[in-house]
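Key result, reporting period 2: structure in, sequence out.
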């Protein structure tokens, strides 16, 4: 996520985009103004082995109607639940149409397209029709496209989220996360709650919806099952706002491949991340976060105050003085994979 100078926070797009007439052979540089928005983190590869997985997480088949209370129990215990066949191919195509409409400037008042940092030097070589393959994320789009809004408030999805958090949800954040073929960077290990101004203890559900086949090669989600049970951990600004590399629980990592239309539900405290892509295949996803409608948001200051004890703990990497995100109680993780 893009960050402010002192704390991870909701992304605030500030680019101005001008969409002029498109001529044959036009490039992205011809179509966008110089203050186009880029990912703030141009980073080297992550340390070797940081995304080595011990297990492939099994996605349950048959969509949401096939889920029982046992699946909800699984989510509570392991902090994630992967389900295939949640959205139909038609629904996924409709969502992709909405996404491409926004990426291609269909709503000039939408300022939430963010390019990969690596695209910065290449804009004049990227043909307009290839623009999506250099975009890293879209931020805050649901009010700009009815098709994407329909995904966010899809009745079956909302029913499931309601089951997981135990009451009617409110949407906290909406993003589209694209891992551009060959250049898509890593998203380091983190907990989403660290970015959100919500009280510690709030049940937050992330829904990561695969629009393409998501595989370990093209950067599918990786999770540490059960890690949500350890509570909040300190995040530092290194390659992004992240859990320190030396705190990543290598040896307990599960990769979560999904088919298009599959959804990963995950707890706001679940440690997760995605490796850089080595693939020529796109990996596009929508991500929505929900929290209980009855919970009041807090301020960034309140969130950071709850972290005040944490700087002395946890991390051998020297923080740059801006890294503190939050802190809470710790409990030992449950073993993974579970015994058969
Ligand atoms: O889709 C990805 O690559 C990672 C997304 C993610 O974990 C996030 O943005 O919080």
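The corresponding designed sequence is given below.
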């Amino acid at each position: 996520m893009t960050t402010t100078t002192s704390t991870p926070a909701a992304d605030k797009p500030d680019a101005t985009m001008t969409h002029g007439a498109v001529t044959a052979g036009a490039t992205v540089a011809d179509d966008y103004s110089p203050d186009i928005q880029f990912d703030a983190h141009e980073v080297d590869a992550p340390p070797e082995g940081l995304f080595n997985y011990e297990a492939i997480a099994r996605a349950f088949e048959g969509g949401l109607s096939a889920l029982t209370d046992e699946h909800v129990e699984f989510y509570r215990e392991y902090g994630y639940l992967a389900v295939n066949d949640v959205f139909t191919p038609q629904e996924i195509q409709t969502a992709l149409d909405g996404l491409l409409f926004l990426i291609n400037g269909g709503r000039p008042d939408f300022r939430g397209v963010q390019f990969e940092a690596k695209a910065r030097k290449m804009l004049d070589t990227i043909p307009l029709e290839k623009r999506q393959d250099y975009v890293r994320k879209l931020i805050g789009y649901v009010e700009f496209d009815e098709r994407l809004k329909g995904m966010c408030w899809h009745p079956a999805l909302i029913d499931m989220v309601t089951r997981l958090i135990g009451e009617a949800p409110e949407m906290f954040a909406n993003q589209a996360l694209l891992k551009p073929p060959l250049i898509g960077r890593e998203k380091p290990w983190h907990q989403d709650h660290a970015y959100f101004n919500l009280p510690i203890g709030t049940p937050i559900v992330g829904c990561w919806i695969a629009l393409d086949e998501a595989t370990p090669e093209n950067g599918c989600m990786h999770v540490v099952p059960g890690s949500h049970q350890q509570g909040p951990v300190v995040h530092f600004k290194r390659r992004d706002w992240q859990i320190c590399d030396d705190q990543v629980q290598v040896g307990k990592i599960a990769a979560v491949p999904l088919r298009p239309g599959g959804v990963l539900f995950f707890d706001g405290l679940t440690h997760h991340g995605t490796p850089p892509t080595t693939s020529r295949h796109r990996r596009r996803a929508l991500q929505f976060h929900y929290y209980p409608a009855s919970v009041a948001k807090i301020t960034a200051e309140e969130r950071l105050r709850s972290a005040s004890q944490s700087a002395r703990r946890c991390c051998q990497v020297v923080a740059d003085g801006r890294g503190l995100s939050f802190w809470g109680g710790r409990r030992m993780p449950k073993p993974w994979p579970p015994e058969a």
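The pocket of 2-oxoglutaric acid is lined by residues 1, 177, 179, 187, 192, 219, 272, 274, 285 (CB under 6 Å). The longest helix spans residues 89-103. This case is discussed further under Risks and Mitigation.
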